[in-house]
């Protein structure tokens, strides 16, 4: 059997200080217990949100994730889950807002950067989305999710650039063709004059 360790007697003159420290430990312990209880309840809300999300009930998921945040606002994962639910409803402004809150709590949260970039991409802000992916990869170079997102948005930007270049070239070609007609238009007066002269000569 293990022997119980004897508690050391506090040094002389330290009784009051020791009592104070013990009181602080008890207070901190009580605060920790409260915090743990909040986290347990919040996690249960998150799990209900996950179940709703998987069932395609995204508005219900938002309700549960929001409840989790109300109970335990210190957890970044609750915000990224909420952002995912907003994104599923194509509510890109709220996706962006909630992702920013997650990143405020944890600047290195991979899903925070991912949701932010997704929101920007959904809003058509492709260049900003690319920057968001790059910012995330600068902190988390091993994130396949961020790397895949960056590749996809880069391809979209390239396709967009090619389409814009083709449209511009087509517009220039049309503009060049439109500029050419005035040249023949300048000739008829001279020709008309010549014809008039010829008519007068014939008369």
TrEMBL record:
Q: Which UniProt keywords apply?
A: Repeat, TPR repeat
- Report whether Repeat shows up as a keyword of the record: yes
InterPro entries in alphabetical order: TPR-like_helical_dom_sf, TPR_rpt
The segments carrying the TPR repeats are: 76-109
| GO molecular function terms listed in the Swiss-Prot or TrEMBL record | Hsp90 protein binding
Which regions are flagged for Basic and acidic residues bias?
Answer: 17-34
Region: Disordered, residue numbers: 1-34, 172-203
Pfam families the record matches: TPR_16, TPR_8
Q: Where is the composition biased (Gly residues)?
A: 194-203
List, alphabetically, the PROSITE patterns matched: TPR (PS50005)
- Does the keyword section mention Kinase? no
Name assigned to this protein: Uncharacterized protein
From what organism does this protein derive?
Answer: Hemiselmis andersenii
Specify the taxonomic lineage: Eukaryota, Cryptophyceae, Cryptomonadales, Hemiselmidaceae, Hemiselmis
């Amino acid at each position: 059997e293990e022997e119980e360790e004897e508690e050391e007697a506090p040094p002389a003159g330290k009784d009051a200080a020791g009592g104070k420290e013990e009181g602080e430990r008890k207070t901190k312990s009580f605060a920790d217990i409260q915090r743990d209880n909040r986290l347990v309840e919040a996690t249960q809300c998150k799990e209900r949100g996950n179940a709703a999300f998987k069932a395609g009930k995204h508005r219900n998921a938002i309700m549960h994730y929001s409840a989790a945040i109300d109970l335990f606002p210190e957890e970044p994962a609750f915000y990224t889950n909420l952002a995912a639910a907003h994104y599923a409803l194509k509510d890109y402004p709220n996706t962006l807002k909630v992702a920013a809150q997650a990143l405020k709590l944890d600047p290195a949260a991979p899903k925070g950067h991912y949701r932010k970039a997704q929101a920007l991409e959904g809003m058509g802000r492709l260049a900003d989305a690319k920057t968001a992916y790059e910012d995330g990869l600068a902190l988390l170079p091993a994130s396949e999710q961020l790397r895949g997102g960056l590749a996809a948005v880069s391809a979209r930007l390239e396709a967009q650039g090619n389409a814009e270049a083709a449209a511009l070239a087509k517009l220039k070609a049309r503009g060049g063709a439109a500029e050419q007609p005035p040249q023949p238009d300048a000739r008829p007066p001279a020709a008309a004059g010549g014809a008039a002269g010829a008519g007068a000569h014939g008369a």
